[in-house]
Amino acid sequence: EDKVVQSPLSLVVHEGDTVTLNCSYEVTNFRSLLWYKQEKKAPTFLFMLTSSGIEKKSGRLSSILDKKELSSILNITATQTGDSAIYLCAVERSGWNDMRFGAGTRLTVKP
Amino acid sequence: EAQVTQNPRYLITVTGKKLTVTCSQNMNHEYMSWYRQDPGLGLRQIYYSMNVEVTDKGDVPEGYKVSRKEKRNFPLILESPSPNQTSLYFCASLAKNIQYFGAGTRLSVL
Fold first, then answer.
1. Does residue A83 contact residue A38 with C-beta atoms inside 8 Å?
2. How confident is the model at residue B65 (pLDDT cuts 50, 70, 90)?
3. Are A105 and A87 contacting, i.e. CB atoms less than 8 angstroms apart?
4. Contact B104 A41 (CB under 8 A)
5. DSSP 8-state secondary structure symbol assigned to residue A10
6. What local confidence, expressed as pLDDT, does residue B89 receive?
7. Which residue of A has its CA nearest to B54?
8. Chain B partners of A34 at a C-beta cutoff of 8 Å?
């Protein structure tokens, strides 16, 4: 059965810390992996990864895909309280009509 | 402004009383879908639509209906809501592999 597993489920850090969030997947016909940030409302798009080993970067956030290990990590450096959110990983299968989400990692950044 | 609009944002209803959650997008996207989000389960797809008059079941379609009579609108219908449908619902439209989500509808069925 296809599945997307995120870890940890919950994480509490202090401002300035660096965090690494994990996403592993087992899906057939993998096409892409996406990261979303969900604060109080709707998830907002962060990154889309299709190629292994190529890092995507946006400010203090970066992400990389490892197709051999069937996983991806999302790094956040110098965390701020505004980074507090649920981070969702989703895997798209070929055919683009199917996207499987992980349960999310709830990150809390304390001042 | 490009957006996906859901209404209502909050809804409390009783078992068996039919309800509709509307979803509209202004980006001319062909693909739209509905998700429900429950603690510990992440987002699960209910139904999706690849174009007008084309809809299909997602992972958890039981108890839900949808329609896609025009490209911009994709309403979610609960003919006879039950308490296990209490959840946070998101509508999304898709372009270039990226989903754009509505603000969510928090539904409570008593």
1. no
2. very high
3. yes
4. yes
5. E
6. 96
7. A97
8. 97-99
Per-residue model confidence (pLDDT) at position A41: 78
Surface of B (77-106) touching A: CB under 8 A: 90, 94, 97-104
Q: What is the pLDDT of residue A96?
A: 55
**Start-to-end CA span in chain A (Å):** 41
- Ramachandran quadrant class, A59 (left: phi over 0; alpha: psi -120 to 50; beta: rest): left
Task: State residue B104's pLDDT score.
Answer: 94
Query: Mean of the pLDDT values across residues A56-65?
Result: 96
The terminus-to-terminus CA distance of chain B in angstroms comes to: 36
Average pLDDT over residues B24-47: 92
Residues in A closer than 8 angstroms to B90, CB to CB, are 42-43
Residue of chain B nearest A87, judged by CA positions: B42
Amino acid found at B46? I
